[in-house]
Design goal:
The complex is a heterodimer of chains A (about 150) and B (about 80).
Chain A lengths: L1 E5 L5 H9 L7 E8 L8 E8 L3 H16 L4 E7 L1 E3 L4 E9 L2 H18 L2 E7 L2 E4 L4 H7 L3
Parallel strand pairs in A: 1-4
Antiparallel strand pairs in A: 2-6, 3-5, 3-7, 4-6, 7-8
Helix pairs in contact in A: 2-3, 3-4
Chain B lengths: L1 E5 L1 H7 L3 E4 L6 H11 L1 H6 L7 E4 L2 E3 L10 E5 L6
Parallel strand pairs in B: 1-5
Antiparallel strand pairs in B: 1-2, 3-4, 3-5
The chains are: A alpha+beta (about 150), B alpha+beta (about 80).
Chain lengths: ~150, ~80
C-alpha cells in the first residue's frame, strides 16, 4: 500500500508503471485521476486545497485498509495533493490491482466515495478576486450508503 | 491542556488555525459552549454545529463524545476531498 499526500505534482504514467511492476499475478489495474475542473463560466483561477496534516495520512490508510479487507486486492495506491492548483492540474489519483477486474473497479469506486467525504481535505475556489469554500454535497454522503 | 485546531471556514471565522486551552469540559458539546461564551467570533463559527464535524486525536468523532484523555480536538466543515 502506498499513500502519499504532497503539494508537488505527480507523474501519473510513472506511478502507474511502478504500481504494476513485478505483479504478474494481478490481471487488472484500475486507475482514477481527479482533475481541477474549470467552472461553467470558464473563469476559475485556482483551486486551493487545505488538509489536516497528521490526520490525512491516517484517514487515507484506513480507507485503503477497508478496501483491502473487502476486495481481493494486490495493492492500493492513493496520491492526493494540497495547496494551490490551477484548472487542468491533477489533484489526486487512486490505483487498485486485483487478479480480476471487478474487484479492482469496485475497490477504486469505494476509495473515491470515501476520499470525498472521509478524508480531511477542503477545497476553496478562487474566481476573479473572490474566494469561496466548496460545500459538501448530500449526494457525497449518500454515496457511502451504497457500500 | 488541550490543543484545538480549526480548518477551512471555521479557521477563517475564528481567526487562528490552532490554540491551546485549559478546560474542564467533559464532552465536545461542553467545550463548544465554553468557546461560544468566550467571544463573538466563536459564537459565529459554532452557530450551527450540524454544519460542522469534529475529530478527537485525529479520528472523526461526535459532539456528544467524552473528552477524557483527549489531547487534540479539531473542528471543520464537512470534507471535500477527491
Amino acid at each position: 500500500m502506498k499513500i502519499v499526500v504532497q503539494e508537488a505534482p505527480f507523474d501519473f504514467a510513472a506511478e502507474v508503471e511502478e504500481f504494476g511492476q513485478g505483479r504478474a499475478d494481478m490481471g487488472a489495474i484500475v486507475t482514477f485521476t481527479g482533475v481541477v475542473r474549470d467552472n461553467d463560466a470558464g473563469d476559475l483561477d485556482a483551486m486551493e486545497i487545505e488538509h489536516y496534516p497528521g490526520m490525512t495520512q491516517k484517514a487515507l490508510e484506513k480507507i485503503a485498509a477497508d478496501a483491502s479487507a473487502r476486495w481481493d486486492l494486490g495493492d492500493v495506491l492513493i496520491i492526493h495533493r494540497y495547496g494551490r492548483l490551477e484548472p487542468g492540474e491533477k489533484i489526486m489519483m487512486v490505483a487498485t490491482s486485483s487478479p480480476h477486474r471487478k474487484d479492482a473497479f469496485e475497490a477504486a469506486d469505494f476509495l473515491m466515495d470515501y476520499l470525498k467525504s472521509r478524508a480531511p481535505f477542503w477545497k476553496k475556489e478562487h474566481t476573479g478576486g473572490d474566494a469561496s469554500w466548496v460545500d459538501a454535497k448530500d449526494s457525497d454522503e449518500d454515496a457511502l450508503n451504497r457500500w | 491542556m488541550m490543543d484545538i485546531l480549526y480548518f477551512a471556514w471555521v479557521r477563517e471565522r475564528i481567526g487562528v488555525p490552532r490554540e491551546t486551552v485549559t478546560t474542564e469540559a467533559k464532552t465536545v458539546n461542553e467545550l463548544v459552549q465554553e468557546l461560544i461564551a468566550k467571544e463573538e467570533r466563536y459564537a459565529a463559527a459554532f452557530a450551527d454545529i450540524s454544519a460542522l464535524r469534529v475529530a478527537l486525536d485525529q479520528d472523526l468523532s461526535d459532539f456528544d463524545a467524552p473528552l477524557d484523555g483527549v489531547r487534540e480536538v479539531a473542528f471543520f466543515p464537512p470534507m471535500t476531498g477527491g
